[in-house]
Amino acid sequence: xxxxxxxxxxxxxxxxxxxxxxxxxxxxxxxxxxxxxxxxxxxxxxxxxxxxxxxxxxxxxxxxxxxxxxxxxxxxxxxxxxxxxxxxxxxxxxxxxxxxxxxxxxxxxxxxxxxxxxxxxxxxxxxxxxxxxxxxxxxxxxxxxxxxxxxxxxxxxxxxxxxxxxxxxxxxxxxxxxxxxxxxxxxxxxxxxxxxxxxxxxxxxxxxxxxxxxxxxxxxxxxxxxxxxxxxxxxxxxxxxxxxxxxxxxxxxxxxxxxxxxxxxxxxxxxxxxxxxxxxxxxxxxxxxxxxxxxxxxxxxxxxxxxxxxxxxxxxxxxxxxxxxxxx
Length: 328
Description:
Elements (H helix, E strand, L loop, with lengths): L10 E8 L5 H10 L6 E6 L7 H4 L6 E5 L9 H12 L7 E5 L7 H9 L1 H6 E11 L10 H9 L2 E5 L6 H14 L4 E4 L40 E9 L4 H15 L3 E8 L6 E8 L2 E9 L7 E9 L3 H9 L8
Parallel strand pairs: 1-4, 1-5, 2-3, 2-4, 5-6, 6-7
Antiparallel strand pairs: 8-12, 9-10, 9-12, 10-11
GO molecular function: hydrolase activity; nucleotide binding
GO cellular component, one term: cytoplasm
Pfam families: cobW, CobW_C
């Protein structure tokens, strides 16, 4: 697991996802026309030979680059890396990047590109995965793997079109989403209108901010768990042995990687002065030192696993084997 330092000059990047018709283009138009002081470059991916999203985006000073003839998560992933490579050669022209995926995209390969591609790893950092959910019509697509994975991967979720549903329906939707993703920030919106500080520059993916876990979300009575996609949250005090942790995580992704959409955590590892943060997507793992522990701060290990058919007791047991001193 790599423990390299962060390049402060890297360009923050938001990956925007959501099922077809949820409101991604509406959010893009809002971002492009709002007064936020950022110079934004946008990569738009439209599945099919003729793209239409670029025609729907209002005129703006930002540059919009369009990718066609395939889905960003598979056949044109090389095009994404090529476009990013060309963009960084003139990075003085923009200071923020938004990548919009097609509504049929699995976000995982896009996220993995930030780990495994040298150019993207060196010049960009993934600020957050933002998922737009259609509060009225998501029910028709709830069982689709694409819709589930988009929700499960999200750092920020916009429940859009909330004016079209009743409060009880909205509450049920939030509870179901919480069963799948216990840590994403959820915002209710109409026409994707919200303060853009809740969407851009939130630093949710790279864990520069500590994980924020509402204890209510951990209450088994607070929500219904989706039968296949769910979150497992582990909170435990104690010093973690780095070698044991590395061994366990690599064994875990070898055995269960395809089912683990995302994992991330903050750890008190080897009694170091700085917390250790890690994150993973399927088979890809990355970790590095985080901010120093404050004097007198309670050193609590916090881990989140989001995926399909997760075994909570198996994860708890595996992590408990990683402590320097055995835990109860």
